[in-house]
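Need a sequence for this fold. Nothing fancy.
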């Protein structure tokens, strides 16, 4: 049986959280430094993938694609493709740390993203909770950095010099996915995770939704309430376009 499905024009792995952690542990322990990167599609990603060719290319080149969003999982079940569960990036990262901590395995990570100072707070929290996880690099890149190739080369050099196993990228979609796809060949890490606001969550800079909201698929509502100026318009657009994409998928079935 294949461990992937095809849906909304992309390949998605049929992984539970534990499945994803098992594979990532294997890559991080025994893999080569060839920058296998992970993306996590949610409704907004599905909508953006329709019109952004560079974003779509990044998805096509990703080594692991796991669903971050209950509507995506629900759509898979209605379409008879049944993804087992959501694997949100904001849960994937601490679960990796917990796995390495429990098994007493060292893990070196580099935090790329978030506002200045946030990475340092996240690093302190990581050290306190997961002593086996060592933050060997932190960088909050300048706004618009992705347009400056020399700056991007310096970021890659910084990551290389840090000798990290895992690169945690919190630049927001689609910037983080497009950037890592472009520069993966210059990033000698075993794994890179494109995980949005996760560095902020690790720092406690942005609050996670209560667990009951996460289990009910309402984390988006909590995020929208926390950042209305940035997210209300996005979610309204997604709410209009995603059902149309689902109907198209259903008709093509």
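Here you go.
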């Amino acid at each position: 049986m294949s461990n992937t499905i095809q849906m909304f024009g992309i390949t998605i792995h049929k992984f539970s959280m534990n499945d994803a952690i098992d594979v990532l542990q294997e890559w991080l322990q025994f893999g080569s430094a060839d920058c296998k990167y992970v993306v996590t599609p949610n409704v907004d990603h599905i909508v953006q993938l329709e019109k952004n060719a560079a974003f779509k290319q990044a998805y096509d080149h990703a080594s692991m694609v796991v669903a971050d969003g209950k509507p995506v999982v629900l759509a898979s079940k209605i379409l008879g493709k049944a993804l087992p569960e959501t694997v949100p990036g904001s849960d994937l990262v601490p679960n990796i740390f917990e796995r390495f901590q429990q098994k007493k395995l060292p893990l070196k990570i580099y935090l790329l993203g978030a506002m200045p100072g946030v990475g340092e707070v996240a690093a302190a929290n990581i050290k306190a909770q997961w002593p086996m996880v060592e933050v060997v690099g932190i960088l909050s890149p300048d706004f618009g950095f992705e347009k400056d190739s020399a700056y991007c080369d310096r970021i890659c050099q910084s990551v290389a010099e840090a000798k990290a196993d895992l690169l945690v990228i919190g630049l927001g979609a689609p910037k983080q996915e497009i950037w890592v796809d472009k520069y993966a060949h210059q990033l000698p890490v075993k794994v890179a995770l494109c995980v949005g606001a996760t560095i902020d969550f690790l720092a406690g800079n942005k609050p996670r939704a209560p667990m009951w909201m996460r289990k009910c698929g309402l984390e988006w509502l909590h995020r929208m309430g926390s950042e209305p100026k940035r997210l209300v318009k996005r979610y309204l657009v997604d709410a209009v376009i995603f059902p149309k994409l689902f109907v198209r998928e259903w008709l093509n079935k």
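For context: The two ends are 19 Å apart (CA to CA).
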